[in-house]
Design goal:
Number of strands: 4
Shape: globular
CATH superfamily: Glutaredoxin
Order of helices and strands: EHEHEEH
Number of helices: 3
Strand content: 25-35%
Number of domains: 1
CATH topology: Glutaredoxin
Helix content: 25-40%
Strand order of the largest sheet: 2-1-3-4
CATH class: Alpha Beta
Length: about 80
């Protein structure tokens, strides 16, 4: 099963909205791993205030706004 990683932080409204949009698109087709960037110094340095960040494999996918076509292409690859 494919894995999408959502780099997020608690209390981030955009992160919560993105997760809500993603769930119906990937249900039964991919796993969504939500990672709190504030729990890891390196992730916090890398992403800073630039959350949410959506990663599929080694590539960032458009997250703001979410691009369902890009998600579908990742799932189909």
């Amino acid at each position: 099963m494919k894995v999408l990683t959502l780099y997020s932080r608690p209390g981030c409204h955009l992160c919560d909205c993105l997760e809500g949009e993603l769930q119906p698109l990937i249900e039964g087709r991919a796993e969504l791993r939500v990672v709190d960037v504030d729990r890891d110094v390196e992730l916090k340095k890398r992403y800073g205030l630039r959350v949410p960040v959506l990663v599929g494999g080694e590539s960032e996918l458009p997250a703001q706004p979410l691009d369902p076509v890009a998600v579908e292409a990742f799932l189909a690859a």
